[in-house]
Write a structure and sequence with these properties.
432 residues; binds N~2~-sulfamoyl-L-arginine; binds zinc ion
Length: 432
């Protein structure tokens, strides 16, 4: 056994020992842990109670995104901090509302997600199978660009509310200034699998160009822009202060912080499905593109609108492949094309990975949600525009363990390949 392997094994054993001791100290299934509850109200009265609970006690709604969508017979996923657990459960019991603990070891899961964040070459898992701090991601961006000067350029597209740089990577294999694919990650802070996917994608492109036919075909025909973290302030905040944070960190005159960047784009802005309440998780902001993060992305896409053919925005969780519109129930003019592409991607994922991905127009598939980047990009003229909701379907939700990163990313990668291939074919066909 090599020394490196021994050290790595010892390290893993130590981590597990610490976690087990912690588990014993806190007491498994006791109420000393923050928990995720799965709650199913069945009557209107119960719906009202669950809505009230979710707006109080420092809880955080995981699903649906806002209490306005809570209805009878739909499952609610709610983060309940340890100090509110007894009160919340008392209320649920008093009103006879069906509920169960979905995740009991929240604190340990969070601990495990942040612990491995090192560039330690002796670690058993690869860099891409771990979550990374914002600082690490900035380092990775620089390093990756430096190591591949002929392929990758970093483009500073703007800065965040707290003045952090927004770097996009431009990948140009073979030749430059082809048509392009845009992928953004991390618009919502707590969806950690999203930035992890952007890193995974870049690494895969670098490693498998000329090795894998699908990625080679894409990269021979398209430049790829990758924005690994659209909401760096929010992402940092989820690492330092509140793992459940969703919005950016902009401060207005109001008492509440943050705008939902995916409600801040100019696509039926702030109509039904968004909120003008600054304290809401789906606050649309003061006006379209009021936030530096959404403005930066919109400006960049406007400047490249004639070359970018495919827009992809990566989110979590619930396993869905969505396309416009989310801001209206109307169908997009190429709805059938988009539906076919999403269906094929979903079928491929099912075939290769045995995972189920729902697909469809956003408003018809989940809810009306105006002001989203996908709808805005579509209206700008990017006719192939998708939002992917990656793993999982609610077992871990936003706390997807690092050991699931590779499968979640490979599924999404297959969807990217399937859709990009079709877009290239359609462009080539229309060019003839
Ligand atoms: O509500 C959202 O912004 C997305 N779901 S999430 O759980 N990741 O927050 C869905 C976005 C679908 N597209 C638009 N609303 N435009
Ligand atoms: Zn999201």
């Amino acid at each position: 056994m090599s020394v490196i392997y021994l050290v790595s094994t010892m390290k893993t054993i130590t981590i597990w020992f610490v976690l087990v001791v912690q588990l014993l100290k806190t007491g498994h299934s006791s109420e000393k842990n923050d928990q995720i509850l799965s709650i199913t109200p069945t009557t209107l009265e119960q719906v009202g109670i669950v809505k009230n609970i979710s707006n109080q006690y420092e809880t955080a709604l995981w699903q649906p995104v806002h209490s306005q969508y809570i209805k009878e017979e739909t499952v609610v996923h709610l983060f309940v901090p340890a100090n509110s657990s007894a009160t919340v459960k008392d209320l649920l019991q008093r009103y006879n509302i069906a509920h169960e603990v979905l995740l009991d070891n929240t604190n340990i899961l969070i601990e495990m997600q942040t612990r491995n964040d090192s560039t330690d070459p002796r670690s058993a898992t690869s860099y891409y199978e771990r979550y990374h701090s914002l600082e690490d991601i900035y380092y990775w961006i620089n390093r990756t660009a430096q190591d591949h000067p002929n392929i990758i350029k970093t483009i500073l597209i703007g800065s965040s509310y707290e003045k952090r740089p927004l770097y996009a990577l431009k990948l140009s294999f073979n030749s430059e200034n082809k048509n392009a694919l845009w992928i953004d990650c991390g618009i919502h802070a707590r969806e950690w699998i999203s930035p992890a996917f952007c890193l995974w994608f870049v690494q895969y492109a670098l490693a498998f160009y000329k090795q894998n036919q699908d990625i080679t075909n894409i990269l021979d025909n398209m430049d790829v822009y990758v924005l690994p973290v659209m909401n760096p302030d929010g992402y940092l905040y989820t690492w330092t202060t509140n793992r459940m944070w969703r919005k950016n960190r902009s401060i207005s005159r109001h008492s509440c912080v943050g705008v939902d960047l995916n409600r801040n784009f100019d696509a039926n802005w702030c109509t039904e499905g968004a909120s003008n309440d600054p304290c809401s998780e789906i606050y649309c902001g003061a006006f379209p593109e009021s936030e530096p993060e959404s403005e930066a992305v919109a400006n960049f896409l406007r400047s490249k609108k004639d070359t970018i053919q495919l827009y992809l925005s990566i989110h979590a969780y619930s396993q869905m492949l969505l396309f416009p519109y989310s801001c209206t129930l109307d169908e997009a003019h190429n709805h059938n094309d988009l539906l076919e592409m999403a269906q094929e991607a979903s079928q491929n994922i099912r075939r290769y990975y045995r995972s189920t991905y729902k697909y469809g127009a956003g408003a018809q598939t989940i809810y009306l949600a105006p002001g989203g980047s996908d709808d805005w990009a579509y209206k700008l003229g990017i006719k192939y525009s998708f939002t992917f909701e990656l793993q999982d379907r609610g077992r871990y939700g936003f706390l997807l363990p690092p050991s699931h990163i590779s499968k979640a990313s490979n599924e999404a990668l297959l969807a990217v390949k399937t859709i990009a291939k079709r877009v290239i074919e359609k462009t080539q066909a229309s060019a003839v």
